[in-house]
Amino acid sequence: MPTRRAFLQQLSVAAAPFAFTSCASAAKPPNILFCISDDQSYPHAGAYGSRFVKTPAFDRVAAEGILFQNSFVSTPSCCPSRGSVLSGQDFYRLREASMNHTIWPIENDVPLYTDLLAEAGYHVGFSGKGWGPGNWQLSGREHSPSGPVYNDIKLDPPGEFISPIDYAANFENFLDERQEDAPFCFWAGFIEPHRELDDGIGVRNGIQLEDVEVPGFLPDAPEVRGDIADYAFEIDHFDSHLGRMLALLEERGELDNTIVVVTSDNGMAFPRAKASVYEYGAHMPLAIRWGARVAPGRTVDDFISHRDFAPTFLEAAGVSIPADMTGRSLMPILASKDSGQIDPSRDHAVFGIERHFPGSRPDGAGYPIRAIRTADYLYIRNIPPEATPVGDHPGPSWPASDTTGGFGDTDGGPTKTYIWEHRQDQPRYAEMAFAKRPAEELYSVHDDPLDMANRASDPELGGIKTKLSTQLDAYLTATADPRATGNAALLDSVMLKYPYLGTNNPTTEQSR
Predict the structure, then answer these.
(1) Residue 500 contacts residue 358 (beta carbons within 8 Å)
(2) Higher pLDDT, 384 or 341
(3) What is the pTM of this model?
(4) 301-325 pLDDT, tens per residue?
(5) CA quadruple 115, 119, 120, 126: dihedral positive or negative?
(6) Which residue in 9, 22, 163, 254 could disulfide with 191, CB within 3.0 to 4.6 Å?
(7) Within 13 Å and on the Cβ side, how many CA atoms surround 388?
(8) In this structure, are residues 39 and 265 in contact, taking their beta carbons and an 8 Å threshold?
(9) Nearest-angstrom CA–CA distance, 351 and 265
(10) Structural class in CATH, domain 13-344
(11) For the chain, how long is the longest CA-to-CA vector?
(12) CATH 3.40.720.10 residue ranges in the chain?
């Protein structure tokens, strides 16, 4: 079996083609406000045309900056997705942190933009949910990979399952503590719209069920519409805090020298969304604003990966970008004044998953997937097609409130329960949500934007499938994916060694 040290050396060599140098000017370093919601799918923001989600703050960032149409996570699972953002690397390169409920790499040798900016004189911190759920203390770090925490100021939340953290007030506290003229880097980790959701809170606050848009992979039933309305209300809640943060920066004359990024860590906590590589799992909302440095009112079609944020922040700050980072700086796109496709090479995104919830299968086993998405197709490779993609039923571990009794990679809730209880009279939804999957999947995005009709066995698309499979292999090999380079045992050993580090561990990050 390859040693971890050999793996690290392989990563360094493989990452070399992706290294960048800073092109930032000697102007005053920009501030950075990175805002990440918890479990929100594209296109659930007003700027994307959603009728039932009210996001005036997100819409403002998009109108005064760039609205991105093709932003994708490295993995649609909380902890490794956040780790990818912080490290600027593909999730599968993060070893112990490549999956949920584990630890930060014990050697603490993964370069992070937060640490590098702190070393460069930035005032760094976060509020809400940072890197997690997982244990970072075992690595010997003094604080979370997201920075020192600012969660002391609380409010009376509008619902039982909405966080009492006053994100905007904690941001103000963070700003008050910085040294004069020091640039800042703040991670606003909104815990909304993560489950659990308050039953009926959406309707009670004016969301009309007839306005709710039910994606075709979910049944159009009142229970489902109500569940989505409750999810929408939590998006509205976090957006109100974003609005307060923007107003605070404007009052202090700091907004136009602040790179404001608003996105999510993975898709909505509904079947065939969160923890899946389908459209509603991996495709994210994204808007970026940076005063006069970014021409306003632009819509960009380039494919963006969340591993691109770290090198972007470093280049903007004039800090060298480590060779380990496989992400590509977005600075050329930000500097352009055009809309549409800016960089022709940004025509695809690669993403995947190892393990979401450790209690979904015996011994903490996962369901590794790798995928590549272009403007026309989504190609998926399910590495263990004989396994259960969303977990066993009955599952070895699941919350008592989840009446389905398993499928732990899909959060429990009214929609999941409805699909399970109607599996006999509406079998198509249960099949899409819970059934096993073939080794390969291929979806035509234009004809099938919600990825519901697998055409991997269609002879007319045989050439497309081969091309995408080859392209995926080339990227995974170049970036030293252990499953593409004969080192899969390294990832498998993480599953066995860390079967679960979650909310019952007092040293873990906030993991709601």
Answers:
(1) yes
(2) 341
(3) 0.93
(4) 999 999 999 999 999 999 999 999 9
(5) positive
(6) 163
(7) 21
(8) yes
(9) 13
(10) alpha beta
(11) 65
(12) 13-344
